[in-house]
Amino acid sequence: MAEDVKAAMPQSILFQNEDRTVALIDVPRSIEEAQLLSSTEIISGVNSRRLVSSKPPDEPFRTPEPRNLIPNPDLAAAIADLTAAASIEQALKVLRDTYAGPWCLPRTLAPAEDVNGRKRKAAPAEEGNGVAERQGAASEPLIPEDSVYLQGTISAERARFLEEAPQFDLIVLDPPWPNRSARRKKDSYSTANNLDEIRETLSLIPIAAHLAPEGLVAIWVTNKPSVVELLTSARGLLSEWGLELIDEWTWLKVTTSGEPILDVNSAWRKPWERILIAKRRGSKRTKLPSQRKVLVSVPDLHSRKPNLRALFEDVFSPGYKGLEVFARNLTAGWWSWGDEALKFQQPEHWV
Predict the structure, then answer these.
(1) Residue spans per domain, the chain
(2) How many angstroms from the chain centroid is the CA of residue 202?
(3) Which residues contact 162 (CB under 8 A, 6 or more apart)?
(4) 75-101+128-309+317-349 has which fold?
(5) Best label site of 117, 233, 327, 339, fewest CB within 10 Å?
């Protein structure tokens, strides 16, 4: 029976091909499952609260293209975009050829608001989708089993981390990269003002001292060449941390019918984000079990990304030790660090 449970996929993984290079992930369910420690509970779905989410997009977003487009002078960035686009087209072909199910699971929706921000009744299209009633004043956050959190900035909590934190098999970072469009959005997460500021913050994280000898670091990055260069150049942060790149995953955002939410060939914005995966320099690990994985999801709220715990069980045994830096929710059995670590653990985000 234990073997059956181990072999079964979590409900959040709606599809995964045989070589595990393509995975369709339900973002809210991956975060819901991350609240649980027991693999039996995760697979069965029992005792799982539901996360309040946004309505999944049915149509691609329209974005204006620049009138006077200047060709990208960065050859490496142009090649990276072409490589990502080719991987995405292949992943979508795999899904369309072999998967006939839904592209996301039913969601628990927040109450709709009118243009003045006042709550109104759910629209007919939302009825029956598990529309959540917002709670009043926030009470105690919901803390998953065996999770540890450092609620505060990197500089404020660094001393405690150095004193108390163990070594981790996986360290996930979702840095607040400079992003003007995110800063313009209401209720958006805070971002760094510039790359110098975020580099200074990232340099404070003691990666080398707290990464297990054969551990991995997974870093969410935007598609800006300067962000990737900050990490991967000869004097970049990976070098500073004693790391070297071992793989790169792509997260593609799609509509409920499986169309990319933006034109793949758009010069302005891309429908994907990337995850750079690095190992210790000199590690015995040469590659991951599934190279250049493509994760496909219908997006949720702006700052939410799929929880990666289950996806790295291909690499580490279940129950491995993880840390998420710049976390916005907690994960059972993991450490979480950041000034928004409890953001989505507040009771009003759950039903």
Answers:
(1) 75-101+128-309+317-349
(2) 18
(3) 206, 209
(4) Rossmann fold (3.40.50)
(5) 117
